[in-house]
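Structure first, sequence second, as always.
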């Protein structure tokens, strides 16, 4: 087995070296040499999509379009979302007038990333080509006129705030053919329509006129409750001269509560198609800094401001403003809607049943109601929505109601067996569901410690609410973002805990009812077990089931070195972080005190050195993936560092994965292992990172080399930098930055001692530091 692994490792190293050589040849214009290298790569790795893509480019430059197309299609058959290969294929097929052939692929790419403007333009080009010269009949003038005069109505709203209920009510009329988000969808164009960056009339003719024509042919009144149609209202009014509009309004407090519960603007599936300021506008950066509740209030106010401005230019007989609360209250307003739309079939009994069924969906369990919000939170809503709410008939004044729990703060002297810590950075709106899954556990002897970073007002609302509901919940607020951000907050909740066993909670994940009990029973079987976690089920944004978690690590051996190696080689999803720990292991951990890119992976490796990690077979942990995984390395590093360890972002040129590798080596070096074990594990750490994280390592090192080559020794991951001129007015500061880079490159050289460009950059930094020191002394 060891010999087979050695052969496999040699093949991988050989393939990587060939690919790097091919890249180097290509950069120097030696295309034939590069081609031979990439051909050798795919002999060993037939599914190497980067080599296939590069071969496609080279062969195209040789004038062989067919072979180039074959290489690029093969790359895309392996990864249909490989954007670089898709763009290269577009270039090839455009020259051969075959661009329309990949329309389905382009549609997939646009659906996956609706913000990809370049790909959307290409798809528009394909659509134009597919229609040009076609014999598809257009609407005859008399049919078009009939459609323009057709009875049709559209519901305008901020979102799905009662639109499902309204759809059910209106469809009870046998004369209506009503749609809620029909196909073809217009959500992608809706974002552009808010800023008038799309031809609204063209979208309607292509995607709605055929549906209206079909309804008209069957003798129906066409109705639609799609929220995404709201910014198209002006075009609808102009194109469909007999159309009517129902403006569905919801009380700002109830809308905000519903949106918070659904997590608008924080990983909701429809966030990419939700209204936001154009990124090129001056207001965008201000809006980006808003808290979640401020963004939701802005959405409500902006939408209804736009709607009221539109209505002011419309005849009164073409619109009706309907408050959702009036629909909930019963028949009179619903009867008025039927009369306004000139549709029959109103049946009070049937509608009462619909309302009863639909209103049950408005039950949010113990999610805090507006009456329980603090004055500060209500003021956010009042200040943003207040004046407009009055125009729509709402009074935002209310008396806060305090719900008292007889057990409030009566903690006594009982020390629970388990502490559960919630270190909240953001997303407090999903905290309620997560807390409910914990408070309903069949193991009850625990406490819940909530600590937020002091920057999201609604986190505080949720925490205080549950502290009142259940005496086991304890909230420790902070107004100091810097002292309770990211990894510091992880350690804070552990320090605030009192139980001998500890686990972290996650605001967007859930636990099955028996999770804590079964972990607790397992960890008591053997004193050498320091962590127990279960298998997991994985969902995308709470709805799409993705399968079981790829989180199994075989680290239950007696030898700490074996356990450590299993963690660094096998760890993928870090669901073990949400298992049950012996608390003393956490308190002694060095991992949280290090500058490291991924503290969780480092911490689990350290835990493996102290004891056994056990995974139980039951699927008791529900992991919810909410992060955007389609970002560039720079964006990913920026967000993660800013959320976990903000000061590290200010350091300038950093190499996160190199630092993570080096931190693993430091763990081993500071352990009590023998010298030969330390040497063996250090070699294995380097080998592991070179094989598992090569793409990330090479990206960040190449970025550093390029910056240093142009004389830049300070550049953060979010793009703030100083150029060579810094030496003219801040010599000591530049010396500080250069010294930091020397340390980072030194850690990188431990991984890639053979990388000549890296060593050259390292030597340049040393020379620069020496020159700066000499100049400082002379001055």
């Amino acid at each position: 087995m060891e010999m087979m692994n050695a052969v496999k490792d040699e093949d991988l190293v050989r393939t990587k070296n060939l690919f790097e050589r091919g890249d180097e040849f290509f950069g120097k214009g030696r295309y034939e040499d590069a081609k031979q290298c990439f051909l050798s790569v795919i002999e060993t790795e037939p599914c190497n999509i980067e080599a296939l893509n590069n071969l496609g480019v080279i062969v195209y430059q040789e004038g062989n379009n067919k072979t180039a197309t074959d290489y690029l299609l093969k790359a895309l058959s392996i990864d249909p979302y490989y954007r670089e290969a898709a763009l290269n294929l577009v270039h090839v097929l455009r020259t051969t007038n075959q661009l329309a052939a990949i329309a389905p692929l382009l549609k997939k790419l646009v659906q996956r990333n609706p913000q990809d403007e370049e790909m959307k333009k290409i798809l528009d080009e394909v659509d134009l080509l597919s229609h040009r010269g076609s014999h598809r009949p257009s609407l005859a003038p008399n049919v078009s006129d009939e459609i323009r005069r057709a009875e049709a109505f559209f519901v305008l709203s901020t979102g799905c705030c009662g639109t499902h209920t309204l759809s059910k009510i209106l469809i009870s009329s046998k004369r209506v053919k009503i749609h809620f988000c029909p196909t073809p969808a217009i959500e992608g164009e809706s974002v552009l329509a808010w800023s008038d960056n799309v031809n609204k009339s063209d979208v309607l003719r292509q995607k709605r006129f055929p549906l209206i024509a079909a309804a008209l042919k069957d003798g129906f009144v066409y109705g639609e409750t799609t929220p995404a149609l709201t910014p198209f209202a002006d075009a609808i009014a102009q194109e469909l001269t007999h159309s009517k509009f129902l403006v569905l309004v919801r009380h700002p407090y109830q809308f905000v509560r519903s949106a918070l519960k659904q997590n608008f603007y924080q990983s909701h599936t429809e966030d990419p198609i939700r209204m936001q300021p154009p990124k090129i506008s001056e207001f965008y950066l201000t809006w980006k800094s808003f808290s979640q509740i401020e963004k939701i209030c802005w959405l409500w106010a902006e939408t209804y401001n736009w709607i009221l401005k539109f209505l002011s230019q419309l005849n009164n007989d073409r619109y009706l403003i309907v408050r959702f609360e009036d629909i909930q209250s019963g028949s009179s307003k619903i009867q008025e809607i039927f009369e306004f739309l000139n549709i029959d079939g109103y049946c009070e009994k049937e509608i009462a049943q619909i309302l009863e069924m639909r209103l049950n969906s408005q039950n949010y369990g113990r999610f805090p109601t507006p009456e329980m919000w603090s004055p500060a939170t209500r003021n956010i809503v009042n200040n943003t929505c207040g004046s407009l709410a009055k125009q729509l008939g709402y009074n935002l004044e209310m008396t806060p109601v305090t719900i008292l729990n007889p057990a409030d703060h009566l903690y006594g002297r009982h020390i629970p067996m388990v502490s559960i810590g919630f270190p909240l950075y953001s997303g407090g709106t999903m905290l309620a569901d997560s807390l409910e899954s914990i408070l309903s556990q069949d193991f009850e002897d625990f406490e819940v410690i909530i600590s937020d970073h002091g920057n999201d007002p609604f986190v505080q609302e949720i925490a205080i609410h549950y502290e009142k509901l259940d005496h086991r919940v304890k909230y420790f607020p902070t107004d100091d973002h810097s002292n309770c951000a990211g990894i510091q907050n992880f350690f804070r909740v552990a320090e605030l805990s009192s139980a001998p066993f500890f686990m972290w909670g996650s605001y967007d994940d859930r636990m099955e009812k028996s999770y804590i009990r079964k972990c607790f029973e397992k960890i008591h079987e053997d004193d050498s077990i320091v962590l127990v976690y279960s298998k997991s089920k994985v969902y995308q944004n709470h709805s799409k089931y993705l399968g079981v978690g790829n989180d199994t690590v075989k680290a239950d051996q007696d030898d700490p070195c074996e356990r450590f190696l299993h963690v660094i080689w096998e760890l993928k999803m870090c669901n073990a972080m949400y298992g049950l720990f012996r608390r003393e292991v956490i308190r002694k951990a060095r991992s949280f005190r290090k500058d490291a890119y991924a503290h969780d992976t480092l911490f689990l490796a350290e835990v493996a050195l102290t004891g056994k990690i056990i995974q139980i077979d039951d699927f008791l942990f529900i992991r919810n993936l909410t992060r955007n995984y389609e970002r560039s390395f720079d964006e990913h590093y920026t967000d993660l560092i800013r959320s976990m360890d903000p000061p590290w972002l200010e350091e300038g040129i950093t190499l996160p994965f190199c630092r993570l590798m080096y931190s693993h080596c430091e763990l081993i070096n500071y352990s009590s292992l023998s010298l030969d074990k330390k040497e063996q594990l250090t070699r294995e750490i380097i080998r592991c990172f070179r094989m598992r994280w090569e793409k990330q390592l090479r990206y960040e090192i190449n970025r550093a080399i390029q910056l240093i080559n142009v004389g830049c020794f300070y550049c953060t991951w979010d793009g703030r930098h100083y150029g060579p001129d810094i030496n003219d007015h801040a010599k000591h500061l530049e010396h500080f930055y250069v010294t930091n880079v020397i340390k980072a490159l030194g850690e990188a050289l431990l991984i890639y001692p053979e990388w000549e460009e890296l060593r050259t950059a390292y030597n340049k930094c040393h020379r620069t530091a020496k020159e700066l020191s000499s100049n400082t002394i002379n001055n």
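Margin note: The CA atoms of residues 371 and 400 lie 5 Å apart.
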